[in-house]
Structure formats: structure tokens, C-alpha cells
Write a structure and sequence with these properties.
CATH superfamily: Response regulator
Distance between the termini: 13 Å
Number of helices: 5
Low-confidence stretches: none
Number of domains: 1
Radius of gyration: 15 Å
Mean pLDDT: 95
CATH topology: Rossmann fold
Shape: globular
CATH class: Alpha Beta
Structural class: alpha/beta
Strand content: 5-15%
Length: 166
């Protein structure tokens, strides 16, 4: 079983989107029984909340279901999961601060490391103060496309590294 945790700031936009898309792709590939997939935030701002409306809309638009609730990442997560995937460099720095110099069990990386063709280091945060602003949908669509490319690359990487076979 390969355990994957996606991490962003509040666990209501990018990381639940990544969790949902990755789970969807893993299921399509017939590998669902080989993975445990979750998401969390580095902050405690939104614990227990459902995903942001823009995240819910974009996932629904692409036929992807998601029912999770926001939670905060813990030090235990860094020893439990095999891969902890941060959405941006700030999230990555927060994870490293949590470690206080100790080496975790998890391989910690940026999602964009698995989609170098994008030429990005960070998955931009699409959060807006007005989720009904028409510009918000465009931001979430762009974020969806970046995350989709990243999780597809991550899955290829894991299948190769972990020698997974269907």
C-alpha cells in the first residue's frame, strides 16, 4: 500500500483538489487497492470545513466526486505517509519547520516537481474572497489543469518507483 498525502495552506482548495483528482486517476488505472490517499493543510484555519465552493464546482465540472473535510497536517503524517506532496514552496517550508531537522519517513516534494513541463514551482492558490466572482472559475480551472498535470506525473513516478503493476 502506497500512502500519499497532499498539503496546502488551509486544505479547502488545492490539496483536496489534488486528493480528488489523484484518487480519480488511480481508480481509472485500476490501482485503487494499492493506494491510501488524503490531504491536509498546514494551518488550522478551516478544520472540519468542506472544500471551498470553487473547488467543489471545478471537481463537479470534471466529473470527480469528493466528500472530504479539512484537517491540519501532523508530525505523525510525515512518518505515516510514503509521499507528502506540497502545493507550494511556503507549504514545503512549513513542513520542514515541523520536522525540526529530523528525517521523516515520507518523501516530501512539490507537486510541480512531477510536471516540469509546466515551468512552475508553485501551484497558485485560487482562493478568493468572493467565490461567486466569475474570475474565480477561471482561477480554479487553471489550478485544476496544473494539479492534473502534477498528479499524472506523480502517479507515473510512483508506479515506476514502487514497481506497481495492475
Amino acid at each position: 500500500m502506497v500512502r500519499v498525502l497532499f498539503v496546502c495552506l488551509g486544505n479547502i482548495c488545492r490539496s483536496p483538489m489534488a486528493e480528488a483528482i489523484f484518487r480519480h486517476i488511480v481508480e481509472e488505472e485500476g490501482l485503487a487497492d494499492r493506494f491510501e490517499i488524503d490531504s491536509a493543510g498546514t494551518s488550522d484555519y478551516h478544520i472540519g470545513e468542506p472544500p471551498y465552493p470553487g473547488t467543489q464546482r471545478i471537481l463537479k465540472k470534471h466529473g470527480i466526486e469528493y466528500e472530504g473535510r479539512a484537517r491540519q497536517v501532523t508530525i505523525r503524517d510525515l512518518d505515516y505517509y510514503d509521499y507528502v506532496i506540497a502545493m507550494d514552496r511556503s507549504n514545503l517550508a512549513d513542513l520542514k519547520i515541523m520536522l525540526r531537522g529530523r528525517k521523516p519517513r515520507a518523501k516530501i516534494a512539490l507537486l510541480t516537481d512531477f510536471a516540469p513541463e509546466l515551468g512552475l514551482r508553485d501551484v497558485p492558490d485560487p482562493y478568493t474572497d468572493d467565490p461567486d466572482d466569475p474570475i474565480a472559475d477561471a482561477l480554479f480551472e487553471r489550478t485544476y489543469n496544473i494539479i492534473r498535470a502534477g498528479v499524472e506525473g506523480l502517479l507515473r513516478h510512483i508506479v515506476y518507483e514502487e514497481e506497481l503493476r495492475k
